[in-house]
Amino acid sequence: MPSRLTSLILPLVVPALFLWGWETTAVRVANDIILPRLGDVLAVLAHPLEPIIGMGSLVANVGISLARVLFGYLAAVALAIPLGILMGYFAPAHRLLNNFLSLFRPIPPLAWTPLMLAWFGITSPATVFNMEIGPTYIFFNNLKFSMAFIIFIGGFFPVLTSSVQGVRSVRRVLVESSMVLGASRLDIFRKVILPAASPSILTGMRIGLGVAWMCLISAEMLPGSMSGVGYLITHAYTVGRQDIVITGMVSIGVMGALMDQGFRLCERRMLFWRGMS
């Protein structure tokens, strides 16, 4: 019983000390512009559906940010996984593309901002497909292509690298044994290579999702953004509302943690067979 109680309390020690230090420092500083008190931030978090500083509710801004992240991230996954499998499975494709793609991997997503603005401006699916003004237009107009590309770059390379390494790391003996037993090339690909590489691919997807979420702030600082958590933080800073700045940061952290935990749960269910070995 004591050990179980300790296991429940121990993870709360550091957060409690952090909050205590925050509140103590804020009281001593006595300047909300520098460091707001814990209660001010909790007051905003306690009313997530109420409008704040004329930018809509916290929930609405988080929802828009989540849609933007998924828009760019899913595009990255849709391209990176097939390309990674191709490069990992076919040596000529790896030799053809690896050095070229390696030139772009070290470039920070934020460095693409000037080009994205020149190429895409503030265009979105709503403007490209000439949608009628309404709720659907407003939603898709928030998914600017320039923002999506920044998020896309953040998620693309972790997924690509893990997909390539996952396929290339499949043990040769598994492939050769399947060939001896008469399996076709397609069967080997579907029933041997893909299952063996799936843990690495899923790990890359999880890492890519985290990187894409972190790229969100940079993406939402681009021209044309008038909503989202990143823009909320930037606007709150300009009007001296540091409590809302910290609220936005907390929201980003919480949503990122929830997405990561959700991905872990899906990963455990999809890879349940690993526990049987």
Task: Describe it.
The protein has 277 residues and is mainly α. Helices cover 75% and strands 0% of the residues. The chain has 13 helices and no strands. The longest helix is centred in the N-terminal third of the chain and has 32 residues, at 58-89. The model has no long low-confidence stretch (mean pLDDT 84).
- Overall geometry comes to globular
- Helix percentage range: over 70%
Number of helices: 13
Q: What is the overall pLDDT average?
A: 84
- Briefly, what CATH class of one domain? Mainly Alpha
Label the structural class. Answer: mainly alpha
> Can you summarize the main beta sheet?
none
Order of helix and strand elements from N to C terminus: HHHHHHHHHHHHH
Can you say what the CATH homologous superfamily of one domain is?
MetI-like
Question: What is the count of β-strands?
Answer: 0
Q: What name does CATH use for the topology of one domain?
A: MetI-like fold
Which value, in Å, is the CA radius of gyration? 23 Å
What is the first-to-last residue Cα distance? 33 Å
**Unreliable stretches, pLDDT < 50, 5 or more residues?**
none
**Assigned CATH architecture of one domain:** Orthogonal Bundle
Share in β-strands: under 5%
